[in-house]
Amino acid sequence: MFASTFVVATAGHVDHGKSTLVRALTGMEPDRWAEERRRGLTIDLGFAWTELRPGMTVAFVDVPGHERFVPNMLAGVGPVPAALVVVAADEGWMPQSAEHLAALHALDVRHGLCVITRADLADPEPARRQALAELARTSLGEVETVAVSAPAGTGLPELRAALTRLLDRLPEPVLAAPVRLWIDRSFTIRGSGTVVTGTLAAGRLRVGDEVEIASLGRTTGIRALQSLGQPVSEVDAVARVAVNLRGIERHELRRGDALLTPRRCQLTAVLDVRVHGDPVADLPASVMLHLGSAAVAARVRPLGADTARLTLAHPLPLRIGDRGLLRDPGRHHISGGCTVLDVAPPALARRRAAAARAAVLAELTGRPDEQSELRRRRIVRRDDLERMGVAVSSPPLAGDWLVEQTELARLHAELPRFVAAWHRAHPLEPGPPVDVVRQALRLPDRSLVHALLAPPLTTRAGRVVHAGPADALPAPVAEALEQLQADLEARPFAAPMTERLVELGLGPRELAAAVRVGALAQLTEGVVLLPGSIQAAATALAELPQPFTVSEARRALDTTRRVAVPLLELLDRKGVTVRLPDDRRRVRAGTR
Ligand SMILES: Nc1nc2c(ncn2[C@@H]2O[C@H](COP(=O)(O)OP(=O)(O)OP(=O)(O)O)[C@@H](O)[C@H]2O)c(=O)[nH]1
Ligand SMILES: [Mg+2]
Known about the structure:
single chain; alpha+beta; six-stranded mixed beta sheet; six-stranded antiparallel β-barrel; 29 strands; elongated; binds guanosine-5'-triphosphate; binds magnesium ion
């Protein structure tokens, strides 16, 4: 058995016996305030519980039926996945029965029971028939019904049995999930400080855990925990919990705030939703969004036929797939439910952006899906996706950066193309700085450039370069090449003489290897230069008055005919220079 407690909210018209029923089932008083008991009217949420069988407890969140207290009712049912719809036998289906059912439907509550109360005052059958017909049209669908009489105690054993069957069908909580505890009450206990209560729907809380307070963006420690009136050191979902927090004043927290596993939930004031219920075009420009135990004013910007952007008066900790309710408080009208599609949507700057956005939203399901999010976001941090409620399984490319597959293929192709183009534009530099590559590929982080590099590209001294041939050659050859590089620093076109090559241990085999990996450019037998020198020669020759003779070229390059003649012939073959009938040459336009 996964969890020992389940939470069920009551619902129904004022005075239909919700609190009386909870009292009869639990022996506890759900009307906590003296004023409630004096007036015989529930004003705020009440909490009570009873063990149905060993190891299975049901906790009730008892809500007020009076239409003035609908916001309190919504805070009660918001975080709870099951409902007990209460209808009095002697009054039958009433306006608040309908409004409460509309709220449950908007919130997509799928598990419930229908209880016909006050069965001692009238035949329960007509009320039962009507209630069942109303419920059948909603997310609750077909439910069991039980008729009870609180004073006589009739029907209570049957109700306990029906509740047991209901709880057996409820989905099991995910204990590994991050905590988001919607606060429904906060109070102070002398000597202990601030205590908040709520329904823990998923995850686990322990004394000593750090929790983030959504509205404050601040973390604090859990000093003590209670569940169902008992002190506990840890508590698993599903549970009613009271959390004693360190260093928090009572006025800093209120209903609608939330305790979170730190850094695991996205706080957002802008979200895109799918609306279920009234057409989006009929929504008022400003509504109340009820979600969890929170109620926050929201501006509505219609996007598609059933999608809209909501801008909240203050941010809430939200995830993809969260279900909320939209209400027009002026008209006392529940407009419908809404499913959160995106908690980090792009800004809509231009008019056309809204239409494009509507097309994107039309495809979204509200089920957090890694591949769908990756496709739209291309590159995203794993933490950010997880904060939105997405379970991530693909490995990050670098750090915690995830890159979508086709985007990855595009980047792998684009990076060498960019580096090659950059080389053409900057022939004398070893390669583009990493940050230049990052910007050109529109990557959010330099670590991604490093991760995208594949041989022969690598980084050296903060630049993307072709893997140095020195990396691929035997150590003695690589060392000899480094010395050669030093020799040629001052006079890059003074090719080493045979004696120097012998001295460096660069025989024909070593030279051939160096040429093969591109570490040396061979002009002719035994005449080698560094590979960059060919491009440098072209650049230098282009600066001469055109056309020029071999001697003029030799002087410009500060070298001898042994090098100048084969070098010019190589440039002729590459099409960099053109040899004229009088043996002079000119640099072809456009090759600089
Ligand atoms: N005869 C009879 N009276 C009942 C029964 N259940 C409730 N009542 C009476 O109905 C009245 C309203 O009961 P409550 O339990 O306060 O109703 P409620 O639904 O909690 O009302 P709100 O919370 O204000 O919406 C009280 O006077 C109860 O004594 C019942 O089974 N039989
Ligand atoms: Mg009541």
